[in-house]
């Protein structure tokens, strides 16, 4: 008999249907993945299983855990089950821990709240589980606070809390989405090891097909609150009976059509640039120590080139980007665009500034919600000495919106009327409107679902071909960088360790760190059937 | 942690120096010469000059500032121009009314606000939450002198449980003193409690939406356990800020309530001193209040660090 059996589960929140007749089974020692795009109901399935649905939720069907229907179980019994029999790991390790309690206290709490052990024994167990998740006592005593740990280490603490009482079912909701690829690989290995050692069942929720393809025993593909396809992972990925599964798969390894790489004259030149940040003083009157975030970096970008900059969080890529955009001065070296410095006499150089635009990651946070699209996308006009007025302005707006696949009429709407993908199109329109030479994309597609991401990447490639645009594409996601760039620079600890054409770097990475990154990145399996499927022209 | 305390102490000292200069300058430039005020309109110029010399008003401003600050550091606050008694003694007498009153009111307001705020937050959107929020709305809106008069009308005049005003002095016994301070403390505390309840409620609601509260539930804590163990301490930081501000207000801002209940507190002292151009008393009382406010803020800063470990490592 399966340990967890969800039978015909339907869920509505305040009358809005969320899930429609979900059925799935997970056996002991089995890893079952729920995948699909945002809003497909993956997380709600997990919360229904935990009995932690938001207020106003009504359910029908049954969730049987070891024979007991969890949907009808009274709350005190549910509390008893949570943490002891069913553990859960969340997406955001940075906020999943209580900032004012030590990690030891938080791991012990799982044990003590269930009165499973004496406090002394609970402390020993907390120590054991932290060791087990890879947080040894010499570096991670129980008295550590969450803010003293990195994201990956915090996620290990969250996992330790979830497995402290050796639950029979572990639910992991996007456990590695917020982490760097090397950390992600470690956390996935840890989860696999725990399942193997404890015979735990694992419900793994992720939007990333590549993550589950080599880890899950079974794969459930969800869309609009329904499971459209499920079965053993290798079967699902080989057969892909449902068109949606195929779309997800194709979109995940989408290759944008960049056209030929150009090798024009150098445009952006970064020469021996270093960027320092002062740290807090160690003693009241001592000198301020300095953190060098970017260390003597040099490179060039030629006109029409699409260059990727990859690296893990904290490697200095955002710092370097801010310096290129002239948002902050550099301490050493010089950055020039077409020979003009981006920073001059203590000010950003406006003549250079108007040749560059940037598109940010968050399509929700990067617009003022009170303004209409026309006003939002004409913001860069303030950089121009003589911005277009009246009909010329309207024409510019219409042209920019049409270029990104929207309609000129959209100019009169507010931003909340648009989806995430459409907002990112508007962000690109805002960058395009002053016809810049260089567009910097700062994790511009990281927050998007795979199918939308593929469309936006196509749009970027198309615009680059049509207008001869130069791109600097910053991302932690290697597969995205691979699909949209001619050349890749790999950054680590403030230095560029490898800078070569995209194909060369992915085919044969030279630097050991690049190899580590490549190996850590989850990959989709290559199936002969999938390659027969219609592919966008390369 | 030590670095944090040292840093706070340095900023405390700087605040005190700046405040003393500002108070001295502001009081100095205020119109009205205390000596001519004390002697009346018909005084002879030489009599006024003699009094000015006696009061030390003929010295240079810098000298007077230094002797004022130096005196305060040694506990000598000077002599009142009007009453010719040591200011330190006057302040000490009044302090024994104002400080207990402020503490009494603050305790009451905290005792009301914490349970009410937690109760409302735990039942967000329920009728009981609406009732509490509605009551706090009223509490904020009602002027405290009007409320004070209502208290007098009901509990002193009709029910005769308390005296309508006055203070018998602590010599009459602890309970007699407390009894005299009860109605004023309630009148002071209720509006403060209403504000504090709202802060407590909204701060807790913010925390309840945090990811770590969900983590706590996933561990098997009941909603109530999660609230008490993980919610409260995190919600306390904005609440501590408001408590600090309220204490400062209760020390200095009780003037109206002291008038209504005829209490010999600091508020009345400063009010009288201003009308009589008793500058030395005004300066000293204001400085003392500033000192109290800054000290309370310092204590609040220490309390932050006790509550939030992230502040301790930041030096």
UniProtKB/TrEMBL annotation, chain A:
Domain ABC transporter: 4-249, 268-518
GO molecular function, one term: ATP binding
Gene3D superfamilies, sorted: P-loop containing nucleotide triphosphate hydrolases (3.40.50.300)
Annotated compartments: Cell inner membrane
Pfam families (alphabetical): ABC_tran (PF00005), oligo_HPY (PF08352)
Membrane topology summary: Peripheral membrane protein
Chief location of this protein within or outside the cell: membrane
Keywords noted in UniProt: ATP-binding, Nucleotide-binding, Transport
SUPFAM superfamilies in the cross-refs: P-loop containing nucleoside triphosphate hydrolases
Xref: InterPro entries: AAA+_ATPase, ABC_transp_ATP-bind, ABC_transporter-like_ATP-bd, ABC_transporter-like_CS, Oligopep_ABC_C, P-loop_NTPase
PANTHER family reported in the protein's UniProt record: D,D-DIPEPTIDE TRANSPORT ATP-BINDING PROTEIN DDPF-RELATED, TRANSPORT ATP-BINDING PROTEIN
Protein family according to the UniProt entry: Belongs to the ABC transporter superfamily.
Protein's name according to its UniProt entry: ABC transporter ATP-binding protein
Species this protein is from: Marivita lacus
Organism taxonomic ancestry: Bacteria, Pseudomonadati, Pseudomonadota, Alphaproteobacteria, Rhodobacterales
Automatic annotation (TrEMBL), chain B:
Membrane topology category: Multi-pass membrane protein
Family: Belongs to the binding-protein-dependent transport system permease family.
InterPro entries: BPD_transp_1_N, MetI-like, MetI-like_sf
Residues in ABC transmembrane type-1 domain copies: 95-300
TM region positions: 9-30, 101-122, 143-162, 174-196, 235-257, 285-307
Main location: membrane
Record carries keyword Transferase: no
Keywords for the protein's UniProt record, in alphabetical order: Cell membrane, Membrane, Transmembrane, Transmembrane helix, Transport
Cross-referenced SUPFAM superfamilies: MetI-like
Protein name per the record: Peptide ABC transporter
Record CDD domains: TM_PBP2
Location of this chain's protein in the cell: Cell membrane
């Amino acid at each position: 008999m399966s340990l967890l059996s969800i039978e015909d589960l339907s869920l509505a929140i305040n009358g809005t249907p969320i899930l429609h007749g979900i059925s799935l089974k997970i056996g002991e020692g089995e890893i079952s993945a729920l995948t699909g795009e945002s809003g497909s109901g993956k997380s709600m399935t997990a919360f229904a299983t935990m009995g932690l649905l938001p207020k106003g939720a009504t359910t029908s069907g049954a969730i049987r855990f070891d024979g007991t229907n969890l949907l009808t179980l009274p709350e005190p019994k549910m509390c008893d089950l949570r943490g002891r029999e069913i553990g859960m790991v969340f997406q955001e390790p940075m906020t999943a821990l209580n900032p004012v309690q030590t990690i030891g206290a938080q791991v012990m709490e799982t044990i003590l709240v269930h009165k499973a052990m004496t406090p002394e024994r609970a402390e020993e167990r907390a120590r054991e589980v932290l060791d087990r998740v890879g947080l040894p006592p010499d570096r991670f005593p129980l008295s550590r606070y969450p803010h003293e740990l990195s994201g990956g280490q915090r996620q290990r603490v969250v996992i330790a809390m979830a497995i402290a009482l050796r639950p029979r079912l572990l639910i992991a909701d996007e456990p590695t989405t917020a982490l760097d690829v090397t950390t992600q690989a470690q956390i996935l290995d840890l989860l696999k090891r725990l399942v193997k050692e404890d015979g735990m069942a694992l419900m793994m929720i992720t939007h990333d097909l590549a993550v589950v393809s080599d880890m899950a025993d079974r794969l459930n593909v969800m869309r609009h609150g329904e499971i459209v396809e499920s079965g053993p992972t290798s079967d699902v990925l080989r057969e892909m009976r449902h068109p949606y599964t195929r779309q997800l798969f194709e979109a995940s390894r989408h290759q944008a059509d960049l056209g030929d790489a150009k090798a024009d004259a150098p445009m952006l030149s970064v020469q021996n640039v270093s960027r320092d940040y002062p740290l807090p003083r160690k003693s009241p009157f001592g000198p301020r120590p300095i953190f060098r975030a970017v260390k003597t970096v040099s490179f060039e970008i030629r006109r029409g080139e699409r260059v990727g900059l990859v690296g893990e969080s904290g490697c200095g890529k955002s710092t370097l980007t801010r310096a290129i955009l002239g948002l902050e001065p550099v301490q050493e070296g010089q950055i020039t665009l077409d020979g003009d410095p981006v920073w001059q006499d203590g000010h950003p150089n406006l003549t250079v500034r108007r040749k560059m635009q940037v598109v940010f990651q968050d399509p929700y946070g990067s617009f003022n919600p009170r303004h209409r699209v026309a006003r939002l996308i004409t913001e860069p006009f303030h950089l121009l000495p003589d911005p277009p007025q009246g009909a010329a302005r309207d024409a510019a707006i219409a042209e920019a919106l049409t270029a990104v696949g929207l309609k000129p009429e959209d100019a009169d709407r507010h931003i909340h009327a648009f989806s995430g993908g459409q907002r990112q199109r508007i962000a690109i329109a805002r960058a395009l409107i002053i016809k810049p030479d260089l567009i910097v994309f700062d994790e511009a597609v990281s927050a998007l679902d795979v199918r939308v991401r593929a469309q936006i990447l196509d749009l970027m490639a198309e615009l680059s071909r049509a207008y001869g645009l130069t791109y600097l594409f910053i991302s932690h996601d290697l597969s995205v960088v691979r699909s949209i760039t001619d050349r890749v620079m790999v950054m680590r600890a403030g230095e560029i360790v490898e800078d070569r054409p995209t194909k060369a770097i992915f085919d044969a990475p030279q630097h050991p760190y690049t190899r580590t990154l490549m190996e850590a990145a989850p990959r989709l399996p290559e199936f002969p059937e999938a390659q027969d499927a219609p592919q966008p022209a390369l | 942690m030590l670095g944090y305390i040292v840093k706070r102490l340095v900023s405390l000292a700087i605040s005190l120096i700046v405040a003393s200069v500002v108070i001295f300058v502001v009081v100095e430039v205020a119109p009205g010469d205390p000596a001519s005020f004390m002697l009346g309109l018909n005084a002879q110029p030489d009599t006024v000059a003699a009094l000015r010399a006696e009061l030390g008003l003929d010295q240079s401003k810098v000298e007077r500032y230094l002797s004022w600050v130096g005196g305060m550091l040694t506990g000598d606050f000077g002599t009142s121009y009007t009453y010719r008694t040591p200011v330190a003694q006057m302040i000490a007498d009044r302090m024994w009314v104002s400080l207990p009153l402020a503490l009494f009111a603050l305790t009451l307001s905290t005792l009301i606000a914490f349970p009410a705020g937690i109760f409302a937050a735990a039942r967000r959107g329920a009728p009981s939450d609406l009732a509490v929020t509605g009551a706090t709305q009223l509490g904020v809106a009602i002027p405290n002198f009007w409320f004070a008069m209502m208290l007098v009308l009901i509990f002193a005049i009709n029910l005769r449980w308390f005296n309508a005003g006055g203070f018998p002095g602590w010599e009459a016994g602890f309970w007699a003193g407390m009894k005299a301070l009860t109605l004023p403390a309630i009148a002071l505390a209720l509006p403060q409690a209403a504000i504090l309840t709202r802060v407590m409620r909204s701060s807790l609601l913010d925390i309840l939406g945090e990811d770590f509260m969900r983590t706590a539930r996933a561990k098997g804590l009941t909603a109530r356990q999660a609230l008490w163990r993980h919610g409260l301490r995190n919600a306390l930081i904005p609440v501590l800020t408001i408590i600090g501000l309220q204490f400062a207000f209760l020390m200095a801002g009780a003037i109206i309530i002291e008038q209504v209940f005829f209490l010999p507190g600091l508020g009345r002292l400063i009010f009288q001193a201003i009308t009589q151009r008793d500058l030395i008393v005004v300066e000293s009382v204001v400085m003392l209040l500033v000192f109290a406010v800054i000290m309370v803020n310092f204590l609040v800063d220490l309390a932050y660090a006790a509550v939030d470990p992230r502040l301790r490592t930041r030096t």
